[in-house]
Write a structure and sequence with these properties.
Length: 272
């Protein structure tokens, strides 16, 4: 059975940034053994924090190598909707050294994006913020190419992540051009690794556990065009009788700036 190895606090180093990229957030320059160079961990927390209280954490995974890109900034949208205060959660977005497709490349120790999240970012956040440090207190959000990462971590780490929501997810097997030019080869290293980490493989493998686990899983669908990847994911969930929530709004566009993130956070808060 493929699992990620236990978290180790020594796998990361961090320094607080004087000027965060998004006003109202906290930013850290972050070094992990699983990613090349310095990257960022950006945090949006309730203001003020209540003394003695422990807060759930939502890990909002980016779709570009940094946290800001053509599709907007996840925490900028979370701040615009006041999600941290409204739902009393901490929202976290990490950045990555290369375009993230959320693999763990067995050929390159510095290109292990899932392990970067699970073994470096999560223990860092737990060490520096008053988190509810259990699976029940951690959730994942993925959008487009980061949706497979959210699904992978949700399926590989049931003891660490208790819920996941994905919007307009990538789905399928990359062709040769996509494998070479879109970044799959860098993130996964081998086709075998991609197959092993592919959410389709993991959902089939874990279907029995997921049916009885009571761990929220939400799939959000926008428009106006057909979203073939999302429909393929939904078909897989239905075929395996895996419990999930479906939210559809044809006005939602393929961007962080479209207002799908607030309902995703609401669904994640409904713990079974």
């Amino acid at each position: 059975t493929l699992t990620l190895s236990p978290a180790r606090a020594e796998s990361w180093q961090a320094a607080r940034d004087a000027a965060p990229g998004v006003p109202g957030t906290e930013s850290w320059t972050f070094t992990s053994e699983f990613q090349a160079g310095d990257n960022k961990v950006e945090v949006l927390r309730p203001d003020p924090l209540t003394s003695g209280r422990r807060y759930p954490v939502v890990y909002v995974l980016p779709v570009n190598a940094g946290t800001q890109g053509a599709w907007g900034h996840p925490l900028e949208e979370a701040r615009r909707h006041d999600l941290a205060n409204r739902h009393q959660v901490i929202l976290v977005t990490p950045s990555f050294a290369v375009l993230p497709w959320f693999g763990d490349n067995p050929l390159d120790p510095a290109l292990r994006q899932n392990r970067h999240v699970s073994e470096a970012v999560v223990p860092f956040v737990d060490a520096n913020y008053p988190t509810l440090a259990t699976a029940r207190g951690r959730a994942l959000v993925g959008f487009s190419k980061s949706a497979p990462g959210a699904l992978q971590l949700y399926l590989l780490e049931p003891g660490k992540f208790g819920a996941a929501a994905v919007f307009e997810n990538w789905w399928g097997v990359p062709d040769e051009k996509q494998w070479r030019e879109w970044g799959f080869a860098s993130c996964y290293g081998t086709r075998e690794t991609y197959y092993t980490l592919n959410p389709a493989t993991l959902l089939a493998r874990e279907r029995t556990t997921l049916i009885s686990a009571g761990r929220p899983l939400a799939v959000l669908i926008g428009g106006p065009d057909a979203r073939l990847g999302t429909e393929a994911l939904l078909m897989t969930l239905r075929q395996h009788h895996i419990p999930h929530t479906e939210l559809r709004d044809m006005a939602w566009g393929h961007t962080w700036k479209s207002p799908w993130l607030p309902p995703a956070v609401i669904v994640l808060g409904r713990r079974g």
